[in-house]
Design goal:
Blueprint: E1 14-18, H1 22-34, E2 38-42, H2 45-52, E3 59-63, H3 71-79, E4 90-95, H4 101-110, E5 113-116, H5 122-134
Length: about 140
């Protein structure tokens, strides 16, 4: 039996999944909930940004292709201190799109992780987030 993860407040880590593909967001939600995370799903980019800026989440899973606002624009807004003064969440970009090397390097510079959805299994996602949490004492 695996240990339920906890954030510093003694609560399950809060995950915001900004993903417009229902099957993928539902899969992430189910597997992460079973692993002890509390998951909120938002399929719209602008609404996802607004939720992320509340700083109520420990982890943000961010798709790049979203309605109303791209994940890249969300990432840049969240990392801009004039637009998002404080954000403790780790941001993990998840995509299936092949990125131009310069764009991918820019994304990786601003994100805490970059995963290709087609390459990651649900178990690997849980393990990746667990390793990410263990490497950061603030989460």
């Amino acid at each position: 039996m695996t240990e339920t993860p906890l954030n510093p407040k003694g609560q399950p880590p809060q995950v915001l999944c900004v993903e417009d593909e229902y099957f993928i967001s539902n899969l992430y939600s189910r597997v992460l909930t079973v692993a002890g995370y509390k998951v909120t799903i938002e399929g719209d980019g602008l609404k996802g940004l607004q939720l992320a800026q509340t700083d109520a989440y420990d982890i943000i899973l961010l798709d790049l292709m979203l309605p109303s606002m791209s994940g890249i624009d969300i990432l840049r807004t969240l990392r801009d201190p004039s637009k998002t003064p404080y954000l403790h969440a780790k941001i993990i970009v998840m995509t299936n799109l092949e990125q131009h090397p310069d764009l991918r390097a820019d994304i990786e510079k601003h994100a805490d992780g970059y995963l290709v959805k087609a390459d990651i299994t649900p178990r690997a996602l849980v393990n990746f987030l667990g390793d990410l949490r263990l490497s950061d004492k603030h989460m």
